[in-house]
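ok so I'm stuck.
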Amino acid sequence: MPSTFLGLNTGLTGLSFYQSNLNTTGHNIANADVKGYSRQVVNAQAGEAVRTYSAYGMMGTGVQMTGIDQLRNVYYDAKYRASNAKFSEYEGIRDQLDQLQTYLNEMQSESGYTKLLSDLSNAMQDLASNPGDATYRTQFIQAANNFTDLINELGIDYQNVQEELNNEIAIHVDTINSISSQVYTLNQRIMNIETRGGNANDLRDQREALVDQLSELVTVKVNEVPLMYGYGDNAVESGAFRYEVRIGNELLVDEMECRQLRVVAREEKLNQNDVDGLYDVYWVGLKRSVGEKFDFNNVNLTGKIKGLFEVRDGNNMNPFAGTISRMTMGTDDGSTATVHLDKPVSLDQLNLPPQGTITLNCKDYYYERWEAVYDEEGNLNDFVFQNVTVRGEDGKRNPASFNTAQDIGKEAIVGTRIDCKGIPYYMTQLNEFVRTFSNYMNDLFTTGVDANGDPGLDFFTTVNPEGKDYVLTSDVEPIYRNSGESSYYKLTALNWSVNQDILADQSRLVVSYWDDIAQNDIDARGVLDKVIYGMSDRSMFAQGTPAQFLQSISTSLAVDTAKYNSFSKNMNEVSNTINNQRLSISSVDTNEEAANLVKYQNGYNLASKVISVMNQIYDKLINQTG
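replied:
not stuck anymore, here's the structure
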């Protein structure tokens, strides 16, 4: 038989249920504008019925609350984070390329390369009208010097952007570590509450908001499974969950572990014009040691940090790469490795550092210098890396020992293939311009003599470590090049300049051939006419004239910027659409909550009325019967 006071208890369950709904609705309204908050609802079911042992069988006992749950959809969370990471990557690349394009656009302004190339051509024409005039000579030399200074400035600007990107990567790695620590702390608090049967919805929201923030920086994968007590068939759910966050496929944090990343400055450069100390990212090992490298160039990764790496290190999938053809150990040049390039490269396009690191058959080595051999087409195709060393367990570099049977025929590569036209790519383009233009012009200037009858000097060159200009032009055709010799490899966008002797003395400028000067014909301009023609020579570059080559760089950058701008807009729309779908489930609608307040208030009043009526009945039964 049911209790005499069953009706009172039934009304009390209704009163408690509606009170909980009012409290939860108030909580939702209070957090309606809090970012990351998920709407909460009270879940309930009919109370367990009791036997009446009569014809009508069972009698209800009211309502039983089963918990207060969040309205979240794991599927939409995962989709949003994936799209958010992709959007952040595209947006980051677009922003950085836009900055690089700004520098090039400035070079097309009234003070840019278009104007200075025009000034240089005009100065040539003025000099051609009076080749012996010291004023016109000085004007031409100064115009050329202004142009080299502008290219220097562009190279420095690009290096500054690379350094800024490097610093930004370090900041974002610190952010990942901070988020990891916060998620780990929340994991502990949530487990502590939920294993005791409590409700940790608000802490869960904080944790999900942190993971959303993390998804802007790197690809995030979340896995949550119940924690069990016991083993095998006897295992029972503890009420808590194991919450695991991975970046890429690597575990970042769970209930037992909070892993950290650290940036480590490279000892060597991967590209000739890289700034010193570019960071690679590693896991923190035991006792704060450097652990395994975390490769942000992984195809499975997206996010803002990857975008920064792509612009900082992007080589358009064209690093120095080839096949190991020979290896020696213990020679006068130390251990050596000979690499045959997949695609022969001209000296003008070479971006290989004079010393650095090289990966031979998936193992990293250091080299001290290199030597390369020309092929029949005048390109470099076989490189010998000399004094190859490897870091030992003691941290010191020791002469490398090779397993030639395994290594010969395997890949050798400096850096990695990065599918983005980043700063290394554009610096290589600028270096190619500087070297090709200088080689073309120097070959003309050195065929003549100056106003004093002395042999012509290289007009474009740079200063060597001893403070003197490199001598770049030679009558002897080289059969090989090495990283230490005087060659056009030494010229870069960062150091390109006019010969110091010519800057100091305009009479050293060559405009005529020896025969003309020998006959005292100071107005002869045989060399100068060829130099003037060279400014419009479409055969100098594959892209055409010097101006057209520089324009091709600007056009390529504009196309890439527009491409990533389009990618960014499209992915932003996808991300917003998914987020709206997510918010349609989890966000708080104040109008709906206001309606719920009225509904639950009416329910509360009715439950109170039930208790009031039952009170009257029990008063009649107990106090007034008999």
